[in-house]
Amino acid sequence: MPTRLTILCNRIIEAGWLAALIVVPLYFNPSSTRIFEADKVALLRSVAVIMALAWVVKAIEMWLAGRRKGSAPAAEASAETASWRARLRHPIILAALLLIVSYGLASVFSILPALSLWGQYDRLQGLYTVAAYLVFFFSILGLLRTRVQLHRLITAALLASVPVALYGILQHFDVRLWGWSYDVSVRVHSTMGNAIYLAAYLGLALPLAVYRLIETKRLGGAWLRLSVYLVLIVLHLLCILFTQSRGPVLGLAVGVLFGVLLWMLARRRWRWAKGVLGLGAAFAVLLVIVNLPNSPLSFVQDIPYLNRLARIANTEGSAVGRVLIWEGATALAADDPARLVIGYGPEAIRYAFYPYHTAEIGNLEGWDVVPDRMHNESFDVIVSTGLVGLLIYLLLFTGIVYYAFRWLGVMPSSKDRTLFLTLWFAGALVMVVGLRLVAQTWTFSGVALAAGLLGGALLYLTVYAFIAPRREDAAEAPAAPHPWMLLILLLFAGIMGHFVEINVGIAVSATRLYFWIYTGLLMALALYVERRTDAAGEAPAASEETPRPAPKKKAGASSKKAGASSKKAKKRKRQPKPSFSARLPEGLVSLSLMAGLMLGTVAFSFFSRSVADEFALAIRGFVLALWILTGLLLAVELYAMNGTWLSLRSLAFYGVVAWLPALAFILFKDVVAGGRLFYLALYNLIVLAVLMAFAVWARRAEGPRLQKIAPMSLVAGVVLAVAAGVFIHQTNIQIVQANLYHNGARSAMQQQRYDPAITQYRRALALDPGQGLYQLELAQALVSKGVYTQVAASQRDQLFGEAEDILLDAVTTNPFEPYHRAQLAEIHRIWSMVSEDQTRQASSREKAVSYLDEALQYNRQNILFLKKWAQIEEQFGNPAEALEMYEELLRWDSTDVSLYLQLGETYQAKQRWQDAAAMYEGALRQRRRLPEAQRHLVTVYQQLGRPGKALQAGRRLVALEPDSLANHTLVLDLYQRTGQCNGALQQTRASLDRWPDNEALQTQASAVTQQCTDG
Question: What's the CA gap between 163 and 184, in Å, rounded?
Fold first, then answer.
């Protein structure tokens, strides 16, 4: 029998995967700079560390308790060990282990080993995070044993999806709960921060909602439960539609195709299966026709929500950008044979890709955005972990598809298995080699690999649909379907949709987490759930929360003899009053805790920074609505489990437990501005409290039949818990705290408050040492203080010197980041301008040229670096070379407004008025609302003898900056010069209306009035 400690560890592990399913999709932190992805990963890793701690403590406890030979714990430990040995021989589990090994080797030999271990600033998807995903995979595989656990897992995933989908729909209808800096009503982002990520996540959550709906219908469920899940599915689909994301929609279509086709084949509906294949082929043909140039169906490109699917092959925008990135990826992979084998290291793509960041990519994606992902999982794997990692990646997905087909009964014989593997790999080979021969490039090999694998799987199912009926006629009756066939099928459909999406997009924390949990669940369902060989010793179908009812009286026990029992005997045998937990319905406690975690996460995410009162009221309404909707969802689930509706006691329990975490953040809303760290600490404590509450409450329901705890296990558990807490704080919590300081520093810089900004940057670096972005911006803050504030020359030199030292340290930490060298060049360029020491001027000029030349060694086509080079040439006495470079850069990128303005100023300084006018007009074509260009045009047009044009530019300038007295005065002067009295009078009245007490304006107005009256 297990000990109390092993049971507690099991419950902590389960609480961990339930918490991750809820908080990762929902959590975001507006108080930080990154807001979404990196903060989600930090929280996910913290939960994984707690789960890993529970695994280690459980292993120690079992080892210590099992040292007593012949004891129940010894037998349990032996059975557990034997069970894991058997599991580790399974190809899917072996592939998962090899995956972490390949990531470990790639990290050791990475160009930036520390970065590959901990992850880069924006995503944190290094070896540490990959190991965290596998903690969830092995936890599901090892501990999910009962229907009640499965029920909780599905409910947790669906609970998280409700606010995500609902918030996305509210965004579409422009219901604002948060102040986004850009319009998110056209393509909604919800809590994921990106439309593609949102659709990809909902595409993974959707199969569980479909499962609940079908199971409810199959078991004759109540109409209310059916309605709840039907509405939830509609919410998912609407939100996916409002994202207008092509990759996830294609993935959803492929998942539906596989799911429906496998359902028909598994149920021997051969004609229906052939019809599904026909519909799938027709859809594929229509998609190709719609995307053809001059297609007869080109009108689809103008239909809302379908137009993006009809422009997959568009020659502009993101599609072209991805092709260019794939070209760079193929060149990068082929550049070094050794790196082709082992990769450049996880998270090192950005820094390895710099030499391949061409002008074309920069023009499309932005020069300050260097790709850190290839928008194709195959290329990501090759660049990160090499061909070794690619082979393991293929082994993993091959194993998932192979065994899913076997479990679903569509691969009954060894010949079928051979046929599948042949078509699976042949499809990949034909697609990759065929596209290489047709396109004369490996650019599309990543997409071709995924398409070929899927095509091979579909071809096998097509062949099976035609040959299986003939085989069945001559054979015995088919084997009974797998008891979990429906859920296995839906999970597999979700995984296949995910496979499609990540090969045309980017996998993120939520989708990777759900993939690994689904894979573990797929294996647990197929192999282990409710098997009597349970290594943990639990009754497979038992509920961890089943209340223990009071014993009933036996029939016939109402005799006079029994009724005449003495009062003493009654006192001795009196049944104790049931505990409060025993009087609650089964599952209420765990579901209420999950609802509380969900609502608390929503409240934290929206209240974690100061919000306007209008938003605060809307957020409270949103949380209240979720509280009610979640209560309805849990009510129908508890009714399905217990057969009765909730009592007032149960409703009150749910109301309090589910509302308390959210209420904490709502009550403390007003302290957010000065207490962001407090808010973050409060949320972390709430997550930990919910984890422990779930574990302790579930453990109490196990009953008294447990072994004693080994004392050394408790000591080891306490020591390891302290160590894990320190580790979590240093590797996850501190980096989020650092980002809060970073956000505060950026706000101070925008307000030109340099001393507070420098202090905040220093605090951020103290918590996250060596973070290149913080070092870069701290150096900029120090230089800005030296330039824009009144400081002595010695103090200014000290500030510049400190900035240089910080960036030199950043270069040492990450020698592959050219922006640090470019910023060093900028520092010395400015230093040479502001310094009065001629020696310093000469030294800074030399260093500026040297550092910028080093930056260009990493990326010779970077327009940002080349513009700095032109500025240096112009400043250091080579105006002709600078002008030539500016003109060349404008030919590279005709959309760069700053180049137009720079060239306009250069031409203006050379009195090339016509050329200057052309540049400013070009800048306005790129950005119509540009006051700086209009201001320059006023002067240029006057020099060209075009007073009318100058007046038009002046009037546009006033419209753009109506609160500028200088602009009004300029236009008034232009009216006077052109002799337009009516216009001058109107401008005079408009100016006096704004500044009635301005004496200079009153004097000028009197002169205008006199001039016009005399005229």
Answer: 17
